[in-house]
Each structure stands twice: as C-alpha cells, then as structure tokens.
Amino acid sequence: MITGQKTTPTKNIKTLQVIQSEVENSNRIALSVDCIIFGFDEAKLKVLLIRSDLKKYAGKWSLLGDLVFPNEDLDAAAYRILKQRTGLSDVYLEQVSTFGTVNRHPAGRVVTVAYCSLINVQHHKLNILDNELHWHDIKNVTDLAFDHQQIFDTCLQQLQKRVQEHPLGFNLLPKKFSLRDLQNLYEAILGIKMDRRNFRKKFFSMDFLIDLNEMEQDVPHRPGKLYKFNFEKYEKRKKKWIGIDF
To answer: DSSP character for 105?
Structure first.
C-alpha cells in the first residue's frame, strides 16, 4: 500500500479567497472538476484522498479537484488536475456526472464535474504526496469534505454497475490469474461475498476465459488453475452482452 507523508500544501491548490474572486468574476458561477481514482491493491478496493486545506473542513479528507480554466476543455482540465495532484499522467479518466447543489462550496456557486478511473495501485506510483495524499480502503471512507461523500458514493455505484456489464476489472489482474483472484477482485469492487460455485458457473457460461493448462506456483493455499481473458472474443460480442447479474 502507498502511504502518505506530511508535506507543505501544494501551490496548485487555490485558496478560498482566490476561488471566491473567480466565482464573482464569472457571473457568480464557477466550474470545477473532481477526480475519483479507485485503485485495486492487496485484494482491496481503495480510493485516492487528500487533506482539505480549508478551515471549514479542517482535518477532513476530500477528492482531488480544482477549478477549470476559462479556455480549457473539461477533459483537459481533469487530466491536468490529476497530474498536478498526483504526478500521474497515464490514467484513463471517464466523465461520470455533474453536481451543482447551490451551497456545495463555501466560496459560492461552484458546479463540479466528476471524473472516475480504476487502476492497479502497484502499476501507478504517486509522484506527489502533498496534503497527505494516499490510498484509503473504501470501507473507511465517510464524511468527506464539501459534498464529496455524495460524489464518491455516486461514482462507486457507477463503477459497481459498470464492472458487472463490462470486463473493466481484468486489466487489474495479472495476465495469468486464478478464479480465486478473479472472485477476490469482484468481491472487492462490489463489496459483497459471492458463492464460489455460482460465480464460476456464470463466468464459464460467458466463455471469455481461456484455460492455460497451468497451475499456480508457490501459493499459501491449494494451487488453482490459471486463466487469461479473451479480449478478442469479448470485442466481437460486447454489443450482444447484456451484463452479469450477480
């Protein structure tokens, strides 16, 4: 797990006074982006959080966000903010939803657009750890600053829905994986325990797994067979695939 460390707050985070000024100079409405980065690590689903530097939310955690520049596209803003906060530049972001409750920001009228991503923590090293940025187990994420708890909950629900409809999680596994690995991944994302026999039956029925005729090596449990995901077959059939109902 990547742990955080106390450092000087990043210069990229705007002060409350600056945000208030920008809101006042944009017809009292400002636009921001919040990045919700989920990470799979140690058989757990985690999310990147940062300490809020606003007095009103002292001690609380928040998502990664900032205002959008007047001449900046939303997608460009999302990738810029992610890089400024984390140093990551090789992460795919997908727009999820917009949040515009009138009093959601203490500086004034700020509408935010949420972007979400799902990555393997071990494959993406954080290069910036300002404001105690680090990974949190989603089970321990409560009472975030601003309306970020609502944004987090919405994005998590969307991720759980998507992972049942598309094989998003396979990129988080090794190229060769066991059915135990696969079930651990889905249980971590969906937050539920699944019946082992039923889970395997449903995946085999989709016919997207390729049996490699190999067994796990040096594992602390009974070795299982190894598989890989047939992305080529999935691409040909995904328009007909209606999802997995667990």
So the answer is: B
